[in-house]
Amino acid sequence: MTTISQKKTLEKSTYIAQGEYAIGDTEDTVISTILGSCVATCLWDPVAGVGGMNHFLLPDGPSSRNDISSFGANAMELLINALTRAGAVRGRIRAKVFGGAEMYKGLTNAGNENGVFVLSYLQREGIPCDSQSLGGVQARRIEFMPALGKARQKLVADSRVIEAVPKPEKTNDIELF
To answer: Any coiled-coil ranges, and where (predicted)?
Structure first.
């Protein structure tokens, strides 16, 4: 019993992209992703030996979009529901969260908003957050062993913050050469 994005079969090692999630229940299963301003939440039930990871883009978005799993609350509910269907008990679920970097300085605050969202969601739902690595200015590669609840983070050495180029002010002035 392992799934990714609700339908695909999970290999021993699988990569999830934005808007996806995967669950697993074997000790040799590893789920991985790469994050910038996005957030990945690793959830697991240590008693049932089942866990999973999601990867979401923004805390919330328009309800008219088809890719609702790219938004925080939907991504969290999809993962939690998949875990409970796989035998996890909601009251035993624990969390580790990663991501939320500031990758586009001055352009967006999405990374910080994602971090604030995931921590408040976990607190509101009564899910203990055992560890977190949120914020900063570097991308991260996350590897999660869902049955064991173990996670590993590697900072991406060549990631850089992109500075927003200020837009020139619009005026009615004319410059003649």
So the answer is: none
